[in-house]
UniProtKB/TrEMBL annotation:
Cofactor: FAD
Biased composition (Low complexity): 1-27
Catalytic activity entry: L-ornithine + NADH + O2 = N(5)-hydroxy-L-ornithine + NAD(+) + H2O; L-ornithine + NADPH + O2 = N(5)-hydroxy-L-ornithine + NADP(+) + H2O
Alphabetical UniProt keywords: FAD, Flavoprotein, NADP, Oxidoreductase
Biased composition (Basic residues): 184-196
Biased composition (Basic and acidic residues): 197-206
Protein name: L-ornithine N(5)-monooxygenase [NAD(P)H]
Superkingdom of the organism of origin: Eukaryota
Pfam families hit by this protein: Lys_Orn_oxgnase
């Protein structure tokens, strides 16, 4: 992604603005330490609780989860209802302690400040989801591929379904056909009855049909905006900066505890925890042909992530002159099909699509077994794998490379029938030569394709390979705190942390070895945010004053069943031993399950503290 920096973003004044100066002084001819020699002086520093790198869906999911005290991953619907009732009515009535007669007057409950958050992104000037929205507008994508339960809202698993229903926008949902159950003709049913019996149960039950619709791009965008508005995330400080280096060390402003020193092209930031929501992380690269002549990256070709206009301005000029135009698209995934669709609809004479493997058609980018009713079995197998290498192979098998949706497959067949598209599977580009005079490409393929024209432009929709060891901004961390990687993916902790001593978190595709095959899509963004924020809350709570009691201290749920007799206490000091006991018990239970511990209802604690008004 190309940064579109603005003077306004560079000159914004705040208490956390930093001035950069080199500190290269030496003493007695002895060089300063590496940290001191490269330090950036910080005026009036702010040590942020959380620094998020990335404003895409994964970054937004983490920011929203940090603001949500009652996430759906922890609470049932009944627990949500009960706890919201308690929050609504707490402090509205005067409470008299029957033992000592002390009356606590009703008073509004003070709103507790959440952790301080700073967000940086190369396209930060556009706010949340800027790059996502730009690409959707560019390719004119009308419908998402993901089903309705793939979203970033931490409050409710069915948040997207509810949003569509509340706003009367069910007409913007498109059913994923041949996904729920299996349709068979009467003849096939009779034939199957006569044949051998075999277990062939559909992956998705009929009762889950409402989940297997895809939302329109506008509906999803509006629902994300509603999440941003609900949690006040528009007020989050977002800076348009490019990440250059991350270090985790003691600092002059934090001599007793290590903090992250995050260096960008605009300055230096300090943070207690850092979340990397950077997608595949690596920059997209154009795979050159084995024999490339006069080929310059960026001239006459580009990667799908770098597209600024479709078709390219050079192609548009030829079209205006009435000349025949030809475009080559390389890739076998949905993005390649979307590029083909845009080119054909914009009037390109002929488009050629090359795929190195067979054409695959799937409703979503992972196997239905991973999202349907058998998902628990698949995830259990994944989490119980003996090694990360085995997990990586399971990811490859579940995703099986790029694929088209049935809708785009139908569109491609229509373009082929109309003579606008020529599709070639199991084909690679063998050579390419750029003619600067005619501004066109001469291309040969393997196996050869007869009658290939000169191409006016080449689009490479070849994905982005993740290789954590090649990221320049992680070299310092890797040298000081080395961890293993598997096929480019980091071997993180179960909390998606770099290691147990370095609170550097990863979400999205880079967390694939812990989240599974869906890590790279919206489902991975939401589940990754849940794991990360759970751990961040634990880390930040260790620094919290003893009288600062949050919802995590007073239990995670409340239910209507078997409420115990209230305990009469008049202040927080009397209740503290009980709070400490609950916290120790919860911590012990969480550590016993390294995969994920879902806290059960501690209704006893909530019930006992309903009538308390802590100073």
């Amino acid at each position: 992604m190309t940064s579109t920096s603005t003077d306004q973003g560079a000159s914004s004044s705040s208490a956390s603005e930093y001035s950069i100066s080199s500190n290269s002084s030496t003493s007695d001819g002895v060089a300063q330490s590496s940290r001191a020699s490269s330090v950036l002086e910080i005026e009036d520093p702010i040590i942020h609780d959380v620094l998020i790198v990335g404003t895409g869906p994964s970054g937004l999911a983490v920011a929203a989860r940090l603001k949500e005290p009652l996430p759906s991953a922890i609470f049932t619907d009944e627990e949500h209802s009960r706890y919201h009732w308690i929050k609504k009515h707490t402090g509205k009535l005067a409470v008299k302690n029957w033992r000592n007669g002390v009356v606590t007057q009703a008073k509004p409950k003070a709103k507790k400040a959440g952790p301080s958050v700073l967000v940086i992104d190369k396209e930060g000037s556009g706010g949340w989801m800027a790059a996502w929205n730009r690409r959707f507008r560019l390719l004119e994508i009308e419908q998402l591929r993901s089903p309705m339960f793939f979203h970033i809202d931490p409050l409710d698993r069915d948040a997207l379904v509810s949003y569509a229903s509340e706003n009367g926008r069910q007409n913007e949902l498109l059913e994923i056909e041949n996904c729920v159950g299996k349709e068979r003709s009467k003849h096939s049913k009779k034939k199957r009855m006569k044949g051998p019996k075999k277990f062939d149960e559909p992956a998705v039950d009929e009762r889950d049909r409402r989940d297997y619709f895809t939302p329109s791009s506008k509906l999803f965008r509006d629902q994300c905006e509603s999440v941003i508005a609900r949690y006040g995330l528009a007020e989050t400080e977002i800076r348009e900066e490019s990440l250059q280096d991350i270090d985790y060390e003691y600092d002059d402003f934090s001599p007793t505890e290590k903090v992250f020193r995050v260096k960008t092209d605009r300055g230096l930031h300090l943070a207690k925890t850092v979340v990397m929501a950077v997608g595949p992380a690596n920059e997209p690269t154009i795979p050159m042909a084995p024999r490339a002549v006069n080929s310059m990256p960026g001239e006459g070709q580009c990667h799908a992530m770098h597209i600024r206009k479709i078709p390219d301005p050079n192609v548009q000029r030829k079209m205006k002159q009435g000349k025949s135009t030809s475009i080559l698209v390389i890739g076998g995934g949905l993005t390649a099909a979307q590029i083909v669709e845009r080119c054909v609809m914009k009037g390109v004479s002929k488009v050629y699509l090359l795929m190195r493997s067979e054409l695959k058609v799937k409703p979503i980018d992972v196997s239905l077994d991973w999202v349907g009713k058998f998902k628990n079995h698949e995830h259990a197998t994944f989490w119980s794998a003996d090694s990360d290498e085995e997990r990586f192979q399971m990811i490859l098998h579940a995703r099986m490379g790029g694929s088209l949706t049935p809708i785009y497959h139908k569109k491609m067949k229509g373009h082929i029938a109309a003579g606008k598209l020529s599709m070639h599977t199991h084909t690679k580009m063998a050579s390419q030569e750029w003619d600067a005079e005619t501004r066109s490409w001469t291309v040969t393929t393997s196996p050869p394709i007869e009658g290939l024209p000169h191409f006016d432009y080449i689009y490479h929709s070849t994905g982005i390979q993740t290789a954590i060891s090649t990221l320049p901004y992680l070299q310092t961390i890797r040298e000081k705190y080395p961890i293993e990687d598997c096929s480019g993916l980091p071997c993180l902790t179960e909390d998606l942390m770099w290691n147990e001593d370095v609170p550097l978190f990863f979400t999205g595709k880079t967390a694939g070895l812990r989240l599974g095959p869906a890590a790279a899509n919206l489902a991975g963004a939401r589940s990754g945010a849940e794991r990360i924020v759970w751990k961040i809350e634990d880390l930040l709570s260790e620094e919290k004053p003893e009288d600062d009691l949050s919802y995590r201290d007073i239990g995670h749920a409340v239910g209507p069943s078997s409420l115990p007799k209230p305990v009469e206490v008049s202040n927080a000091e009397d209740a503290k031993p009980f709070f400490d006991h609950l916290k120790r018990k919860e911590t012990s239970q969480r550590k016993s399950d390294p995969v994920r511990f879902k806290t059960k209802a501690t209704e006893e604690l909530i019930y006992k503290t309903q009538a308390l008004e802590f100073p």
